[in-house]
Design a protein that fits this description.
Helix content is about 15%, strand content about 45%. It is mostly beta strands and about 250 residues long. Strands 1, 2, 3, 4, 5, 6, 7, 8, 9, 10, 11, 12, 13 and 14 form a 14-stranded mixed sheet that branches. The radius of gyration is 17 Å and the shape is globular.
C-alpha cells in the first residue's frame, strides 16, 4: 500500500498549508496528458460562474483537457477494491480563483466507472458523466478513447512523452497550468465549495501526439481553438483528496 504519510509530509511546494482535517480519498493517476489551449478571457467568462474569478497567465485564459487512468482508488482506511478501483477518467477544465486562492473549475468530468460517477456527483458535487472509455499503451504510446451514451462528447487521444522529466519552476506557464491544489464548484444557490487535493510536485515530460477534443468541448459549450495544444505527460501522480467545504468556512490556512 502507498505510503500516504510521506506524501503528506512533502509540503514545501504547496501554495498554502494542508487542511487540518484528514483526507478522505486516495487515487493514483497514471499516464496523464495535459493538453492546453490559450483563449481570450472573454471567451470563457460567460461559461464560468460569476462567483469565481478567471485565473490568467499573461492576460490569457487556458482550457485544459486531461485524459488519464485512475488506479488504487480507495477511501481513507480501506483497501483497494480490485477492478472497481481502476478506471479511465477525462476532464475538461479551466483555471480560476476562489476565496483568494488559485484552483480548477471543471466544465465536465467523464469516468469509466458508474459507481465513481454517482459518488463524485453526490459527495463532491462535481459535473461527472459516465462514459465508455479505454486507455492502453501500444508500443510506448498511450491510446485513449471516450464517449458518453449514444456516442456523445466523443474524445480520442494518442500521446507519448518525448523528453526527460522535470519539475516546473514557480512563475512558469507549466507551473501555472499544473500545480493546482483546489477544485472549486459553485452550487445553484451561489455558494462556493472548495475541494482540497495534495500530491508531490508534478513530474512533467514534454509530449507529442494527437488530441481530438472538439466534440467533448462542444458538448459543454466550450470554444476549443483550432490551434495545436501544448502537451505535457506525467507517468504517475499519487493524490490525496479532502471532502469539499464551503469557502466561507475555510480560509487560506484551513
Amino acid at each position: 500500500m502507498t505510503d500516504t504519510v510521506s506524501i503528506e509530509r512533502e509540503v514545501a511546494h504547496r501554495p498554502w498549508p494542508l487542511p487540518k482535517v484528514p483526507w478522505v480519498l486516495f487515487q493514483s493517476w497514471r499516464d496523464l496528458l495535459f493538453a492546453h489551449w490559450s483563449v481570450a478571457p472573454e471567451a470563457l467568462r460567460p461559461l464560468v460562474p460569476a462567483a469565481l474569478e478567471l485565473d490568467l497567465h499573461d492576460g490569457r485564459a487556458w482550457i485544459g483537457i486531461t485524459p488519464f487512468g485512475i488506479e488504487d482508488f480507495r477511501p481513507r482506511g480501506l483497501p483497494t477494491m480490485g477492478p472497481l478501483s481502476s478506471f479511465p477518467e477525462l476532464n475538461l477544465r479551466t483555471y480560476v480563483r476562489g476565496a483568494g486562492q488559485g484552483g480548477i473549475h471543471f466544465f465536465s468530468l467523464d469516468a469509466g466507472s458508474l459507481a465513481a460517477v454517482l459518488g463524485a456527483r453526490t459527495v463532491f458535487r462535481l459535473p461527472y458523466h459516465h462514459a465508455e472509455m479505454a486507455i492502453e499503451e501500444v508500443d510506448g504510446r498511450i491510446e485513449f478513447r471516450s464517449a458518453r451514451p449514444e456516442g456523445e462528447a466523443a474524445f480520442t487521444a494518442s500521446y507519448e512523452p518525448v523528453d526527460h522529466a522535470f519539475q516546473a519552476e514557480p512563475g512558469t506557464l507549466e507551473h501555472f497550468l499544473t500545480e493546482r491544489y483546489a477544485l472549486f464548484t459553485v452550487l445553484q444557490s451561489g455558494r462556493i465549495l472548495k475541494t482540497e487535493i495534495h500530491h508531490r510536485p508534478w513530474p512533467l515530460q514534454p509530449a507529442e501526439g494527437e488530441v481530438n477534443g472538439k466534440a467533448l468541448a462542444a458538448a459543454e459549450g466550450v470554444p476549443l481553438p483550432d490551434d495545436a495544444p501544448l502537451l505535457h505527460f506525467s507517468r504517475l501522480q499519487e493524490t490525496l483528496i479532502w471532502a469539499p467545504t464551503p469557502v466561507d468556512a475555510s480560509g487560506p490556512d484551513a
